[in-house]
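ingest -> validate -> predict -> emit
validate: passed (alphabet ok, no gaps, 292 aa)
predict: started
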Amino acid sequence: MGILLGKETKVLVQGITGNEGSFWTERMLAAGTRIVGGVTPGKGGAKVYGVPVYNTVREVVEKQGAEASVIFVPPPFAKDATFEALEAGLKLIVLLVDGLPVQDALEVRTYARERGAYVIGPNNPGMATIGEAMLGFIPVWLADVYQPGNIGVIARSGSLINEVCSQIVAAGLGISTCIGLGGDPVPGTTLTEVLAVFQADEHTSGVVIIGEVGGSMEEDAADFMKAGGFTKPAVAFIAGRSAPPGKKMGHAGAIMTLGRGSVQSKESALQSAGVEIARRPSEVGRLLREIV
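emit:
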């Protein structure tokens, strides 16, 4: 068992009848995810891979006991879909959409915190507790990339999750839960918030942080560690070492300000907090073996 998501978690899929929603529902079911219902307004009564479809989130909560949601809806409808899940009382929501307006993201984060819920994303690949359940599109069925174990993984980059996890497995270790936070400037859940949950998880003995140039989440996490909020062994890889200064990068969160946000400033902050720094993904496994 890892954090937030396990094999017993009852999950609903918002947008389940769309192309992406139905495609990934089949794979999430194959990964062991306990999907108890889907939601598409106006299509209640249908079924997708045997999963009953309802018109509202509240129906799935009341009739099937859903506890978590994964959202496959276009950006213009993503905020309303997330608010519907929060108002129905769900405490874990994975918001995969790319292109959510910043104002919408701010409102989602504020409302989620008021409700005491975790919104993972947007602009992310999802999350998975390896060997138990997956929400999103993380390829947990690849045995040389994902094996269950006791290393937590937190990433801003979706593609680098797969690369780094494969290095962890190659080193003879495994993963408890991996979480993609997304590369947008306003994530629903921050690196520091996830570290606090991993700190409390008895099945996680260390973490890997996959950061990137821009924003200040990694520096904030370093401050959190120095204050004693996270004390387990940690390795970090920060992507963007060769990014040219002053050039706009792909992720909306890749903005450097006032000495914070560069690869060097993030590595320096994390190193001063006791985190081992990998200069390339292939170093992650070796460093973990030395400290865990």
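The mean pLDDT is 93.
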